[in-house]
């Protein structure tokens, strides 16, 4: 879990540099080798590693528009993922989808889009698993703002009726774009909504990856045993803006340094050093994670862009 968190953080730190290339001194969303919006998950790594540590290759994960920590924790091919974000032909979608439309069928991972769009896809995967008699689960990651969307409630209602092996992980990073949770959501935490569907709910405080691991283990056991869905909400912390270039005028910027003081990666490293691992072993994990990221970025930069004749390739059957 620590190695995966480090890999995710270093990946996004590297992506910030790549994304900002060509966009300064005046921020231009369409400029540079990685155009478009870019939503980063720095600080939210515990939500992904805590549950994905229990998943198999056959289990499905859907993600919203802030997907990198989920994709990395699920085992998405890092080279192809990075190439896709650069719009290269070697990418997961041959450069057609970009950062918000990552899709890797090899490990059953997909970005379902913004807000609650990925939950119905996860319900479909969970229904397929049940009908096929497979011991698979489906996990849908969403932000806390998505819990107020119709797709959230409709999906959970059906999943509860059919007792599907579904876990919905709500990442409460306190803001739906620029709207604070307290101004948009009537309940203190979205795990409480589980009672309305007669399913299990759990809340993980303080962005704690170890507690997320424990809570997820129980949720997945229930799902695999035919006991239906679970809503898990985790109190997590978005260190960066809603998107790169976000002026964050809605946010108290004094809170950001305080968030970084309770960095979950630092906390786990301190825990490991209390007798679980040596400094040398941790350094080896960090080095391995960073090497994989560096190789992925080198692969993406060296890959070619699609040619005009590639535009409709794989779109229509021959």
From TrEMBL:
Cofactors: thiamine diphosphate
Record Gene3D superfamilies: 3.40.50.970
Entry's Gene Ontology BP terms: pyruvate decarboxylation to acetyl-CoA
InterPro entries according to UniProt: DH_E1 (IPR001017), PDH_E1_Alpha_Subunit (IPR050642), THDP-binding (IPR029061)
GO molecular function, one term: pyruvate dehydrogenase (acetyl-transferring) activity
Keyword entries, A-Z: Oxidoreductase, Pyruvate, Thiamine pyrophosphate
Stored CDD domains: TPP_E1_PDC_ADC_BCADC (cd02000)
SUPFAM superfamilies per UniProt: Thiamin diphosphate-binding fold (THDP-binding)
Residue span, Dehydrogenase E1 component domain: 36-309
Pfam families the UniProt entry points to: E1_dh
Protein name per Swiss-Prot or TrEMBL: Pyruvate dehydrogenase (Acetyl-transferring) E1 component subunit alpha
Organism of origin: Bacillus canaveralius
């Amino acid at each position: 879990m620590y190695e995966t968190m480090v890999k995710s953080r270093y990946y996004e730190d590297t992506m910030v540099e790549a994304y900002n290339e060509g966009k300064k001194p005046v921020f231009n969303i369409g400029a540079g080798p990685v155009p478009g919006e870019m939503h980063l998950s720095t600080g939210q790594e515990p939500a992904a590693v805590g549950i994905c540590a229990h998943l198999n290759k056959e289990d499905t994960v859907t993600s919203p528009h802030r997907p990198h920590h989920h994709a990395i924790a699920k085992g998405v091919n890092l080279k192809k993922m990075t190439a896709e974000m650069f719009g290269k032909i070697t990418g997961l979608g041959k450069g057609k989808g970009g950062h918000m439309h990552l899709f890797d069928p090899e490990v059953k991972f997909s970005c379902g889009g913004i807000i609650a769009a990925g939950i119905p896809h996860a319900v479909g995967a969970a229904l397929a698993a049940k009908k096929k008699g497979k011991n698979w689960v489906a996990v849908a990651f969403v932000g806390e703002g998505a819990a107020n969307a119709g797709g959230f409630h409709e999906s959970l209602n059906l999943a509860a009726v059919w007792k599907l092996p579904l876990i919905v992980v709500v990442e409460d990073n306190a803001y739906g774009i620029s709207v604070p949770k307290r101004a948009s959501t009537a309940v203190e935490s979205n795990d409480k909504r589980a009672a309305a569907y007669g399913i299990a709910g759990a809340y993980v405080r303080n962005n704690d990856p170890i507690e997320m691991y424990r809570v997820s283990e129980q949720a997945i056991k229930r799902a695999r045993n035919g006991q239906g869905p679970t809503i898990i909400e985790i109190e997590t912390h978005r260190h960066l803006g809603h998107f790169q270039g976000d002026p964050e005028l809605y946010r108290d910027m004094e809170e950001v340094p305080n968030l970084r003081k309770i960095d979950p990666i630092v906390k786990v490293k301190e825990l490991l050093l209390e007798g679980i691992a040596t400094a040398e072993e941790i350094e080896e994990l960090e080095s391995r994670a960073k090497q994989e990221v560096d190789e992925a970025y080198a692969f993406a930069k060296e890959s070619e862009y699609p040619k005009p004749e590639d535009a409709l390739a794989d779109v229509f059957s021959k």
